[in-house]
Every structure is written in structure tokens, then in C-alpha cells.
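Figure S7 source data.
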Amino acid sequence: MATTNPTVTTYQCPKCPGAVSEVHGSWGCTDCGYAPPHGAD
Ligand SMILES: [Zn+2]
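C-alpha cells for the predicted zinc ion complex:
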């Protein structure tokens, strides 16, 4: 029985006390809008 928890992947924003989270496939800080470097895509 595999129960998938709705885990929200976030990490500490390097620019502010906010959290960087993945929203619709794009990473961004919810506070300052910081977007981490993205691999060549
Ligand atoms: Zn931030």
C-alpha cells in the first residue's frame, strides 16, 4: 500500500528568510521571487 504524501519540496532561500518552492515546474522564492540557477534546458 503506497501512500504518497503531498510533500512540498522547499528549501531555504539564499537571499531572504523565505522559502524556495517548486510551483508548476518552476522554482522560485515565494518572498523575494528569487529563482535559482536552472540547468540548461
Ligand atoms: Zn527569497
